[in-house]
Specification:
- By secondary structure, the chain is mainly α.
- 46% of the residues lie in helices and 3% in strands.
- The protein has a domain at 129-187 and 284-328.
- It has helices at 35-50, 55-71, 84-91, 128-146, 152-186, 213-240, 252-257, 276-282, 286-301, and strands at 188-190, 196-198, 303-304, 309-310.
- The strands form 2 sheets. It has a two-stranded antiparallel sheet. It has a two-stranded antiparallel ribbon with strand order 3-4.
- A hairpin with a 5-residue loop joins strand 1 and strand 2.
- Helix 5 (152-186) runs parallel beside helix 9.
- The protein is elongated and about 150 Å long.
- Residues 42-69, 113-138 have a biased composition (Basic and acidic residues).
- One of its GO terms (cellular component) is kinetochore.
- Residues 81-131 form the G-patch domain.
- Residues 189-199 have a biased composition (Polar residues).
Length: 328
Amino acid sequence: MSASYGNGANAPEEEEDDDYMNMTFDDPTPKQETSLQRTQRLKAESRARGIIKSKAERAEEEAAAREKALSTSLLEDPKAKKSKGLAMMAKMGFAGGGLGKKGEDGTTIGRAEPIKVDVKEDRGGIGMDNEKKRKLQEAVAERDIKTVKMDPDEYRDRVRKEREDARLEKQLHAAQRMAELLDEEKSVAPNQEGETQPKVTPMSARPLKSISVLYRGLTRHRLEQERDRRMRHDLELSLSRLPTYEDEDEDEDDKKALGKKQTTYTEIEDLDEEDTELEDFDSLEVGERLRQLLEYLRSQHLYCFWCKTAYPDSEMDGCPGLTEEDHD
C-alpha cells in the first residue's frame, strides 16, 4: 500500500543532496608562476646582486645580524627541540636561564648572558689596545702636570711682548751694524797729502775685547761663522787631496794650485775666551740695549737712527728725540 501525500503539508522534509556537479576544490599543488613573473623575479634578484654595498653598509648589516643572533635564545629556535644536547641538559635538570649553580632563592649564580663578541679589526697582538690606552693615559697625565693654566689676558700679554721683543731685536741688529760701520769710518782719517790712513788698528785685526760691547756680539758671531767656514773648507780640501810626491822644480804657485800648500789664517785674539762683559750686556732687556746703542750713536757720531741722518753739531736741530715714539 503506497502512501499518498496531499498538497505536501504532511510530507516529510526531503534531505538536500550534495551537488557534486557544481562543487569546487582547491588545488593542493602550489600555484605556478607565469613566465612574466619569473622574468621579473630574476631581474629583481639580478639587480640586487649587482648593487655593490659600501663598507659602512656591510659593517652595519653584520652588526645588525650579530646583535640579532646574540639577543635570540637558542631555546626559542624550533630546531632546538630536536637537539640531543638540549635533551641531555634537560635530563640533568636544566630548565632554561643562566648556566651555573642555583642559589638559595632559586636564582642562577652563573652567567645568564652570552659572552660579548669583540670584533678585532687590526693586526695587533692581544693586549696591545690596553698598552696603548695605558700610554695614552700616562701622556695625558704628564701633559696635565706640565700644563699650567694661564689667564687669557696673561697669555695675550705674553704673546704681545714676544712680538715686540722680536721687532726690537731687528732694530737692535740694524743699529749695531750702523755703529760698527761708523766706528770703522771714524778710525780712518785723511793725512796731510789728502790720502786716508788708519789712525788705529783695523777693526778686523783688533782684540775682540777692545771692540765696543754695544756691538761686540755682532762682530763675535760673524767671526765665529767665518772660522767655521774656513775649517770646513780646509777639511774638504784635505779629504779631496790625492797623495802626491814632492817635486823640487815646483814653485809656490804650482804648490798652491795642487793643494800642497796649506793656507794659514790669522785668527782674531780671545775668540774662545769667556767674555763676562758681553754676557752682562746680553742679559739686559732688548729695549735697554737698544736705548744704550742709540745714545752711543748720538753722542759719538751725532747720528739719529730714526732720522737716518748725521747732524753737524751736538744740538742735532730738527731731530724730535731719542725714542721711536718721538718720531711718530
